[in-house]
Design goal:
By secondary structure, this protein is α/β, with parallel strands linked by helices. Helix content is about 40%, strand content about 25%.
């Protein structure tokens, strides 16, 4: 049966900006990132980003941006001057909420104190630093270009530059890693007392160097013990898990990521960037992706052609995508958010909700759907229940 969207108001709107270059691509990375072989084309790429953004504006007239995320690649390869020009260009084209969260990913191997301080002055108010481990052997196995001393220095430098909002990325389940070593890494992160920790398991993604030549990883039982013991340690030290791999103190959640998980809207600009936009007057949801190759993307600025693909999402896929994302949120999601952000009546998935409850994967607490602890362990089983028929 054909389902019709009924949006009364669009969901919150974020902006994702992709900066695709790295010093060297890590063997586990499946993002659209490219090792830098020549001089970084800062001016040309920022020009292309702002032209790309201008092309997107008719989709979002009058809507306010709640958060910006500069991801990559390694955005901290870009000079502070380039980031300042980029953010000034964004502000000139889009209204930002007064307290908008503006996050930039940074790599300990590519940053210095002067650049951190200048990023802060340009308007970056949250820094996400890709630590991954403090063990030099594990960092080498992961193909990271920094060592433990540089990682620690980067965190101190960020604090000295005035960043109060810092996320530290940490992996576990690394090649030949013991449970004790995973806990040692976590304890080192906790000692730095960041407001936010992203703690996630190394997975071997298709089309990566690790997928082609898999390293020796801890077995499933050890990885499960790592997860359990690390989660316990985080809880003991005041970090509340609010998403499958995200932990925060004092409710300092990543607003940008929460918007993703709650099926909010987001513009995506940059090579290979994805976007999802609710077009209320037409009662539809559109997905867009941009040209992946950075050279082709920059060449597109001359013709204002950046789109690689765009298509509408039907009701069944919108319901599935909502559940795929929102079931990661530990406290659950209000049913009214489903109605507001998908434009659908919850009855469209009620049979699947009942089945998930019967299998002990989901709780239906009056106005909230919440994944059970059993459901979080078998999250794939839960989300498969909502696949479009």
């Amino acid at each position: 049966m054909h389902k019709v969207f009924q949006f009364t108001a669009p969901p919150p709107l974020a902006l994702y900006i992709h900066l695709p270059w790295c010093v060297k691509k890590c063997p586990y990375c499946d993002f659209n990132s490219h090792g830098l072989k020549d001089e970084l084309p800062e001016q040309q790429y920022v020009d292309a980003l702002l032209t790309d953004l201008e092309n997107e504006l008719p989709l979002v007239w009058g809507r306010q941006i709640v958060s910006i995320f500069l991801g990559g690649g390694t955005p901290s390869l870009f000079s502070a001057e380039a980031i300042d020009r980029l953010l000034a260009g964004v502000r000139a084209r889009l209204p930002l909420r007064g307290d908008a969260e503006i996050t930039m990913e940074a790599n300990p191997g590519t940053v210095e104190q002067k650049r951190f301080a200048a990023y802060r002055k340009s308007g970056i108010n949250r820094l996400s630093i890709g630590i991954q481990s403090f063990n030099d052997e594990h960092l080498q196995a992961l193909g990271r270009i920094h060592d433990s001393a540089q990682a620690k220095c980067a965190i101190d430098t960020a604090k000295q530059a005035g960043f109060e909002r810092i996320n530290l990325d940490l992996m576990y389940g690394l090649p030949n890693q013991s449970i004790e070593q995973a806990l040692d890494d976590l304890n080192t992160v906790i000692d730095f007392a960041p407001e936010h920790i992203s703690h996630y398991q190394l997975t071997l993604e298709p089309d990566t160097a690790f997928a082609k030549q898999p390293p020796e990883l801890p077995d499933d039982d050890d990885r499960w013990l790592m997860q359990q013991q690390c989660q316990q340690r985080l809880a003991e030290t005041g970090y509340k898990q609010y998403e499958v791999s995200a932990y925060a103190r004092n409710k300092k959640h990543s607003r940008h990521n929460m918007n993703y998980w709650a099926y909010g809207d987001y513009l995506g600009i940059g090579a290979g960037a994805h976007g999802k936009i609710t077009i209320g007057p037409e009662q539809r949801i559109e997905r867009r992706s941009k040209l992946r190759n950075p050279l082709r993307y920059m060449a597109g600025a001359k013709t204002k052609q950046f789109i690689d693909d765009k298509h509408d999402i039907d009701a069944n896929n919108a319901a599935f995508e909502f559940m795929l994302n929102s079931m990661r949120i530990v406290d659950g999601i209000k049913i009214e958010t489903f109605e507001q952000h998908t434009g659908l009546d919850p009855s469209i998935i009620q049979d699947k909700i009942n089945l998930a409850q019967a299998q002990g994967l989901l709780e239906n607490d009056r106005d909230t759907w919440r994944t059970t602890e059993h459901g979080r362990r078998f999250l794939n089983n839960l989300t498969e229940l909502f696949l479009p028929e």
